[in-house]
Amino acid sequence: MAPSIPFPLQVLPRLIALSLGAACAVPAWAADDNKPAAAVQALDTVEITGVRATLKRNLAEKRESLNIVDSISAEDVGKFPDKNVADSLQRVPGISVDRIWGEGKAIFVRGTDKNLNMTQLNGQAVASSEWWLNEPQTRSFNYDVLPSEIVGSLDVYKSPSADLDEGSIGGLVIVKTRRPLDFKQRLTIQAAGEALYSKLPEKTDPQLSGLLNWQNEDRSFGVLLAVSSQRRHMRRDGLEMFPDGKYDVVDQNGAVTTAYAPWGGGSAIFRQDRRRTTTNLSLQFRPNPATDLVLNLMDSDMKMDNSNQNYLWQAGGLAVNGRIAVTDPKFVNVSDGSKALVGGTVGPKTGVSFEPIYRKSYVKSRVVDLDGNYQGSNWKLHGQVGTTSSEGGSSHDRHFWMEGDTRVQLDLGKDKYGVKYLDINPLDPKALTLKAGDDRIRRMESKENYAQGDLTWEFDNGLVQAVKVGLKLRDNTLRNSRIQGTAGPGSPGWQSFSLADLSSGASPLLSQQAGHPGALLQYAWYDDGLVASKGIPMFDKAMVYKDVLNENYRIKERITATYAKADFGFDKWRGDVGVRLVRTEQTSEGFIGAAGGGFTPTQVKHSYTDALPNLNLVYQLRKDLMLRGAVGRTMARQTFDLLSPGLRRDGTVLSRAYAGNPMLKPIHAKQAEVGAEWYYADAALLSGTFFIKKLDTFTYKASKQEQVGGETLNVERPYNADNGADIKGIELQWQQPFGNSGFGTVVNYTFTDAKAGAVTGQPRLKVLGNSRDQFNLSGYYERNGISLRVSYNYRSKSYGDVQMGGQVINDAYGQWDASASWDITPKLALYASAVNINNEVIRSNTVDGLPIGVYENGARYSIGVRAKF
Q1: DSSP state, residue 145
Q2: Nearest CA to 66 among 379, 466, 381?
């Protein structure tokens, strides 16, 4: 059930009515040398301490901006118990976070999917990759690579401007790192040490960070070095079902029912030891008041040792020629008019499998960026060049495959993973025997080179206050490659054994918060030490490797953008208007798998041009009250995995294949918004914004018959829908310090009404990633060196892809966090934090009640000390 909302949706109309009826007053910028705020491009960076002062600065950034924008400063980030930037962004109105691994990984903005948003570092791209073998390479930024310690400020742009990069429909997040000459003191040293306890794995890990900033005597040159080292042992308990396609289900009487059937499912314990080291080096040179040069280097390196042990049952995984034998099968009707298998007894042979996985994974991201500005008498020249690269994947992904003979009785339903192994005891390690194994090595690489230059003319009088023109070039290359190692009887050095040879007892009880009474919650499992000493050496000796070419692809993008923008102001009006012209040239390369196992290379080119106009408008009704509006056209390119031209054959049904579609069109949106902001007291805000986005298409997958190499295959590809989606919503914000008591609150609520168009022959879908309700509440107290914060983050159910004939629904999620600090001296502070205090569980089912997964990540607690010199 959603939490009660303190502000009804009628707040915005009331605000506007109040605004229109109020007496006009002198604009806030009138006292600043009679210069309109449109001429103010950015606020001077100052060092502010204290929660209230920091929130006041955030509001100043929001108030002076021409765009619809929300900001968070470094001080504000530090007061929350966040370990990466995504966890910090969850406090921003309209943003929700993907926490499938217990820590923020991707963001959703204003009801749009994570792939329709973009993140930049200092206004430019920062490459990111994935570490998990099965993770698609999308355009969603992987926030694992950005710890909160490197952040100077965060700006979330929800309305576009011509000089901001295209590629996002929900919002553009710009992470700004600190600059050496922004510090007040010539020498600043900061350090923090923290002990982090994760409850589910029962492990305590160190978190260390430090910052050194130095300026020369005349403050024309500065050097900043920031280092963050974090380690976290995580454990995630899960009950899973693995969706699959349609099979002929044959009962004990020979009756055949064509229905969706899961490949199988299991009870999984995932463990990870992740170590992230991030270094940020910044050099700033300001030889005269007109010239400013900044070289910024960022390196993030995260290594993850993973263990995933999953005690499995199978259904579709036992199919022979597309047929599954099931005694007393039970079916449910699903959204596309088909049936799905949810119960019965599968067997009698090989009904159980056990798949321990030992994975060596990594994610690396690097940025080299040179940013220069020169201020003339009434003009400004800006240039920026750089390169960013990333690499991720697994250097080893060893799968042990064990089997046992038993019948399996299934009883599936919403959040129900009922399974009984009728002929064996899961706690008996002698019941399973090693049959085969493999090593799945995946490497994802991304590199982008960019160059940008723009020129701004400033005017003292007249309607137009500034004109900016610019050009930006981007060259982006992404690669995905796979190598498969196999081992089994007949391989050199192969040795089979039972689970008893590598087990030292039973697993811990799993999913105590999420477990279902009929699910398997404990079983015999591998001992990590025995695997390291006996299992892995045998595996490596027996493994035979080969390229998996039909999963290899390379996508090159060359993007050219020109833009023109004018800032204007008159009377109580100010704003900007502009247009961005973008040319995208894509070349997709991959391989088509043949029936005999061979591969044929293929290449597809696709180009398109977009014109993206926009208008931002602000009306200063009185000093403390303003109205905002914005209209514009935005676009987002399709994800890389969907653009691959490769074709992969199904291993079970030989006439089935899967492929990408490099001719997919990008997604465009026409969007508009209008809102009111009332700055009714110091560090206080009451605001409401209504927004609407009309997307021209969305992507769906369908199987169609194609001629491939002289064969007729049913090929599943992604396609553009002929219609799109409408997203309407309202954002409400309330920020309030309660007098001089030290108490205060920050509250925001976002409502979205999202509707997607229908596709003939496909079930009608909800908009991917959308949650109808999002709610953030933070309460704080700060006085006499004591700072306390508690926060609650909530999102209602959200929607995923279609699985087994129906769309996936992710249940509502609400998480409590807290932090506290005590300034022992002005230079020394003790702090503590608690994350996911309520141990919220992630649950996913299809709309038809088929269970997909339920996961428990557990709570985390920390205590640490900060020092500043």
Answers
A1: G
A2: 466
Residue type for position 105: K
β-strands 573-593, 773-783 pairing: unpaired
**Which position has the token pair 């991030």?**
278
- Of the pLDDT bands very low, low, confident and very high (cuts 50, 70, 90), residue 651 is low
Does the structure show a pLDDT above 80 at 78? no
For the stretch 786-798, pLDDT in tens is 999 999 999 999 9
* Rounded Cα distance, 226 and 280, in Å: 5
Q: Which amino acid is at 222?
A: G
With CA atoms as reference, report the closest residue to 399 among 316, 314, 313, 486: 486
The answer to whether 279 touches 491, Cβ cutoff 8 Å, is no
Q: How far apart are CA 512 and CA 841, in angstroms?
A: 10
490-512 CB burial, b ≥16 within 10 A, e <16: ebeebeeebbebbbeeebeebbe
Handedness of CA 577, 28, 49, 216 (dihedral sign): positive
Q: What is the DSSP letter of 62?
A: H
Q: In order of start, what are the domains of the chain with their CATH numbers?
A: 11-868 (2.40.170.20)
Answer yes or no: are the C-beta atoms of 117 and 79 closer than 8 Å: no
Cβ atoms within 10 Å of 185's Cβ, excluding its own: 12
Structure tokens at 420: 């009984």
Q: Per-residue pLDDT averaged across 204-227, rounded?
A: 94
Structure token pair of residue 47? 């060092």
For the record, the structure tokens of 499 come out as 């689970």
711-768 pLDDT tens trace: 888 888 999 998 889 999 999 999 999 988 999 999 999 999 998 887 877 777 888 8
Q: Which residue has the tokens 């892809």?
A: 801
Q: Residue 604 in 3-state DSSP?
A: strand
**Is the Cβ–Cβ distance between 156 and 92 less than 8 Å?**
yes
Which of 593, 524, 609 shows the shortest CA–CA distance to 552?
A: 593
Per the document, the length of the chain is 869
pLDDT score of 84: 66
**106, 95 in Cβ contact below 8 A?**
no
3-53 per-position pLDDT tens digit: 433 333 333 333 333 333 333 333 333 333 333 333 333 333 333 346 777
Which are the contacts of 721, defined by CB distance < 8 A and separation ≥ 6?
Answer: 697, 698, 699, 700, 756, 757, 759
Q: Are the C-beta atoms of residues 172 and 103 closer than 8 Å to each other? A: no
- Is residue 131 within 8 A of residue 392, CB to CB? The reply is yes
Instruction: Provide φ and ψ at 451, rounded to 5°.
Output: -145, 135
Does the pTM surpass 0.85? The reply is yes
Q: What is the CA radius of gyration of the chain?
A: 28
Phi, psi of 504 (to 5 degrees): -120, 15
Q: Provide the total of helices (H) and of strands (E) in the chain, helices listed first.
A: 7, 46
Looking at residue 63, what DSSP letter applies? H
Give me the sign of the Cα torsion angle 337, 799, 701, 239: negative
* Strand locations in 784-812 (E): 786-795, 798-803, 806-810
- The neighbour count for residue 199, using CB atoms within 10 Å, is 14
Of the CA atoms within 13 Å of residue 87, those in its CB half-sphere come to 27
Instruction: Please tell me the distance from the alpha carbon of residue 37 to that of residue 620, in angstroms, as a whole number.
Output: 10
Burial class (CB in 10 A: 0-12, 13-18, 19+), 714: middle
Rounded distance between C-alpha atoms, residue 697 and residue 718, angstroms:
12
Q: What amino acid occupies position 8?
A: P
Q: Which tokens in the block code for residue 247?
A: 């099979």
| Position 444, amino acid | M
Using an 8 Å Cβ cutoff, are 608 and 697 in contact? no
Q: Identify the pLDDT of residue 617.
A: 97
User: What CA–CA distance (Å, rounded) separates 415 from 725?
Assistant: 29
Distance CA 358, CA 527 (A): 12
Q: Which helix (H) or strand (E) holds 642?
A: helix 640-643
